[in-house]
Amino acid sequence: MTRDRRRLLSGRGSQSQSAIPSRGPDVVPTGLSITTNPPNTRRRPSVHITLQRAARLHRLVWFLAETPRTRDTILAHLTIGLRTFYRELELLKRCGVKVRHRNKHYTLLATAKHAEGRLPFPDPQLSFAEMAELAACPCAAGSRLADLLAAVINQPAPAKKRPSSAARKKSNRKKGSSA
Prior knowledge:
elongated, 48% helix, Arc Repressor Mutant, subunit A, 3 strands, three-stranded antiparallel β-sheet, mainly alpha
């Protein structure tokens, strides 16, 4: 998507000024760094998760990255049950985060940063204006958001439904009785 198209979507027209000062592509206000993994052509799984589950997955990844851990150690550290533990392992697997289980120890096979880049994030509940503002960012994520926003904005109107055969018969009966 072109820069001019992004500006139009953001409602700023041809103006290049933003209400929020730019901090550069690698600075996040919270102090977290942005991982710059190469664009992945593989489709990410569509997962809707809660804020608490996202935090737990994040803690699990970083905990496993430190050293191999036993299941009981992980359960105690995260204060979760056995079913939740296996659900989280399954979700990590679906997201492409590999965890090895060998000799009763679980080990993260990638770096924590790489695994973190694959974790799903909860829906931030953005408005169209906020989405347009983020889509204007000159980065890979901004480009993806701009494409997503354009797909929503340019969605064709649904075709009008034809009445069912029962509704047509009923309509024909009304026409016949009124004549």
